[in-house]
Amino acid sequence: MEVSSPDQDQQQQRIDLESRVKILEADKNNSSPILQPAPFPDVQQTPLDHFEPSIDSSISPNSNLSVASTNFDPLSATIVNELCNTWFEKYHPWFPILHQPSLLEALRAHPSVETSTHQLVIKAIASVTVPYCVSVPSTPSQRQQWSDTLRDRVVMDAMKQISLQAVQALLILSNIDYGEGKVHEFWNLVALCKSSLGETRMNTSLGMRDLVTNQGDNFNKISTVPPRMLPLPNTIIDREERIRAYWMTEILDGASTLGVAWNLGISPPEGTAVLPCSDSIWKFPSHIISVWSFGDFHFSSAFSLCIILVASELWHVHRFLQKAFDVRLLDQRMKWQQEAQQLDERLTAWRGEFVAAVYRLINSEYAQEERAEFDPNIVLTNCILDTAVIALFQRLAPSPDGIDKYYEAWPYATNRCLYACDDMTAKIRQVRDKELENSSPHLIYSMFVAARFYLVYAKAVAADIPRNLHLLAYALRICGERWALARRYGTVIRTAVAEHHMPIGVMSSLPVQFFDLQYSTLDIDEALRAWVDGLSLSSHGGSGSGGVAGGGVGGMQSSHMRTVSVDMNAAV
């Protein structure tokens, strides 16, 4: 047997080590650090955490953009501060459920999101705003992927707890689903927040309805609800945020189902309910707000005006639309017309009160602001009111050829619908493009309802496309810079304009139900979504919209069509 010497052993070990070093260096040189995903820090790894941002094939793998975007953390302190500032600048004016000074102070006290008591709310804000965060090098698809991952995680975490922050987070996330046109997902989030008949949901368990209707004072008292020990607000800010979360849930539920007959869970009006405080007071820090009693305020807020319309006046519209009428029978049609006209008179009276309230509100709170009458909630309230009028009467408006006609059109209904469309257009005409781009996604639905009526009526009477329709189409295009729902509706409008003189069901490509005003816009939502999705997959999808844009619907200049009026009666 041959025995090796110590020198030979050392030489062989040295050769082995050198070979291993060469292999390791080769592996290191061949590895690509940009392909490593960037998970959110300091959280337990779950299947949602294992996502990898998509890399744009047009970007060089060695570019700084790829490296920076892969290492981007949407929950880092710097980015979170930016996203929260974006929320309060662009979303909070029409979705005022959070107290800005308190949240920003909490961010300063706890820069790490995972240790913050507001982490659910902050993550929800990040999910809504990160797709439009262009301050860091990243692709739109990457930002959208981060948003989707955050949304799914927040929903799962919110369902595991009952807290004010969970309700606020779900309400914030609802803007994503509605803005993308996912109404069923949107209603699921609202259902998680809303207390419905006999069911214990978040608002009921948190005592929000009791706080609003009974000011939380229903234990051992004569009350319409059973006495319960409810979690009381810790601070005046906590109390106000509960009130605002409750009312926002009611607004989302009532406004998003306007025009349909199947929403039986609409809460009845509360005559003595507590409304949110003044918008100007809500901007102060908590130590200043605590000095006053909210009951001392003499003027409402723009948010409260929207609450009064949706939670009180629209309840009567919902209840009327839920009644069964066979309008083909003369006696039932006459009864339907009588009740609809009475309800319309009620809405008209409320419109006058609304105009007066806006005057008082501007004089008391916004006297120094140049465009106070265009507060986003004032604009939204005005448009929802017009949408309610159209929802009341569109069934008895003229029907175009190709749609079954079971009765004569009612001129009163036609005139009221046209008035509502014209009034809405007059308001939208005065809203600036930047204000439209940052507006609530719920404004999109109202504009499309009016645009649809213009189109169907013009087709029914064989008239040209009304000029006001061009303005609504332009407004939808501006809203489409942020919301996919507006882009979908814009596609429908452009196609309807291009096919205006084509017979329904023969040459027109749109679903027949679009031209049948017996169906509300929500009734045909699924059909329109399927049609647009199919159009995007078709090789002919681009030709129709391009031709229409050239005809003036999508390509008009705002300077010619959008003028600002100082007439308050026209503005409101």
UniProtKB/TrEMBL annotation:
GO biological process, one term: DNA-templated transcription
GO cellular component terms, semicolon-separated: nucleus
Tree of life domain: Eukaryota
Keyword Transcription regulation: yes
Protein keywords: Metal-binding, Nucleus, Transcription, Transcription regulation
Domain Xylanolytic transcriptional activator regulatory: 87-351
Main localisation: nucleus
Single GO molecular function: zinc ion binding
Claim: Transcription regulation is one of the keywords in the record: yes
Protein localization: Nucleus
Protein name as annotated: Xylanolytic transcriptional activator regulatory domain-containing protein
Organism: Knufia peltigerae
